[in-house]
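Figure S7 source data.
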Amino acid sequence: MVEVRVRGRNFASARLAVWRSFLALRFHEDPMRVADELTLGLGRASSLAVLPSNSQSGWRESNPHLNLGGVARFHYATPACSRSSDKQPARSDSILRVVLTDSDVLRAFPGIKDIADARLRKLSIDVWRSVSERNPAWTDIEAIPPHPTMPIAIHGNLVKHVVAMVRISEALVPIYRELWKQDLDLDTFRAASYVHDAAKVIEFVEKDGVVAAIPGYNHAIEAARIVRELGGPEPLAHVVEAHSFAGALVVPRTRDAQLFLMLDPMCLNVFPEQGLGVVERHLKANGWDDPKTLERYRSPGA
Ligand SMILES: [Fe+2]
Ligand SMILES: [Fe+2]
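Tokens for the predicted fe (ii) ion complex:
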């Protein structure tokens, strides 16, 4: 039995891969040799493999009996994981993997169409497509939580966080113009909102049956790297890389980056009444949960 996995940057490479895989299966070729040939022929940009099931690392369809709240349909299996999954019933069919399309992104974020600058509109979609190619496990953007420790049922999904950032940006622009004559560029704030957390698609993986964040992975810095790779404006890339208090902080060097950093935690439905609030979570994420400021404070006048 073999499992066919296809992932390509474009339709042509995916079609070639599917055709070559079909021939390999039809004529009972050595799967490892075919996998090597395709890797060499198609390069790293389009990955394809015809693999003996459970024989090595790779993305596998998740056990449908695991309760993941529907957040992940596939997981990255190590050889050790594969051995344990040998206990599952064998699959006789094949899996044709797909990545997020423009329509998938626009369905989750219809407001992207409101971005006036066509390049930023395209960038907002392309960043999501790019992260999806690097981890095709997430086939439904609506199913992504803000963080694996923030269940959607309690805190809402990542889409709501992004939409909140867009809406507050829209409110911010006229306020800053009226009060301080600061002309914020709404397109920049909208595009930053749409792309800033996209690398969570790469960061959140299924491990031992549950969705977890890859330790040490900084989705802010990685998203900015993708923005730059795709030719996005440098000021926007900086806004993205400096958007998070979690993990290594990139100090904001611009007005937009500073405001956006403040906006991000404000747009989370995560409050002390529900458990750990956003501020406490960020302190813990950086190992700053001690000192407990209020308990240690002594008023100079007392
Ligand atoms: Fe973030
Ligand atoms: Fe965010």
